[in-house]
Write a structure and sequence with these properties.
This protein is α/β, with parallel strands linked by helices. The protein contains 6 helices and 6 strands. It has a 6-stranded mixed β-sheet, sandwiched between helices. The termini are far apart. It is an enzyme of class 3 (hydrolase).
């Protein structure tokens, strides 16, 4: 019987972003009060699991989401650049509340190819780096579990790839809520299932969309 290993991808909690900026990889964006409660709720949910490694994107919001779980599990947080948010040319612009994102014709060229996508890091490159860190975490936690804190787009396209689905998609239709867990179960090196849960779901409901999903909500 092969060893079973589970790698959980945890999306960070809500970010304090009152002006509706697409923050992407910009520094200085931290969890809101609600986001901190989300992180604490997740920590309680994973406290009894056999997690032996906690890795995080270097972004502040990801590290702050990882901290309660790492503390509860008695583990150090390892930072890994491969878990970082996807690059986006609209970083720093307001994307909600009638912002200027879609009013400047000079930006239209960035919407020409949604399959790549033309506004940011190619989906295939995001999947490649995420798969690499998942493989390393699986090896490190073989026979146990690992918790990796990342961001919505990287987690979602990794799930799409694992399930054999196309990578291009409508960001508003991602099943990857704030502080949600997307869990990959391996038998040996073979992926046998992908699960999804929202341990902080009761706190998340009713929160505004964030990141690229907010960008597309403007046109919807």
């Amino acid at each position: 019987m092969s060893e079973m290993t589970v790698v959980h991808l945890l999306r960070h909690g809500e970010v304090d972003n009152p002006t509706g900026v697409l923050y992407g990889r910009l520094p200085g964006y931290h969890l809101s009060g609600l986001g901190r409660r989300m992180a604490e709720t997740v920590a309680k949910a994973v406290a009894g699991r056999d997690i032996v490694a906690v890795l995080s994107s270097p972004m502040e919001r990801a590290q702050e989401t990882a901290a309660p779980s790492a503390r509860m599990l008695g583990l150090e947080i390892g930072l890994d650049e491969r878990l970082i948010e996807a690059a986006n040319v609209f970083e720093g612009l307001r994307v909600g509340g009638g912002g200027p994102l879609f009013r400047d014709p000079r930006r239209y060229r960035h919407f020409m190819n949604p399959f790549r996508p033309s506004w940011g890091e190619p989906y295939v490159e995001v999947v490649a780096r995420m798969k690499s860190v998942i493989d390393d975490a699986r090896e490190r936690a073989r026979g146990h579990e690992a918790l990796l804190v990342s961001h919505q787009l990287p987690i979602w396209v990794t799930r799409l790839a694992a399930e054999g689905r196309r990578l291009w998609h409508d960001p508003r239709r991602r099943q990857c809520a704030l502080a949600s867990l997307t869990s990959f179960t391996f038998e040996g090196d073979r992926l046998v299932s992908v699960g999804y849960s929202e341990p902080a779901g009761a706190l998340v409901r009713g929160t505004p969309p964030q990141g690229e999903a907010a960008m597309f909500k403007e046109t919807g």
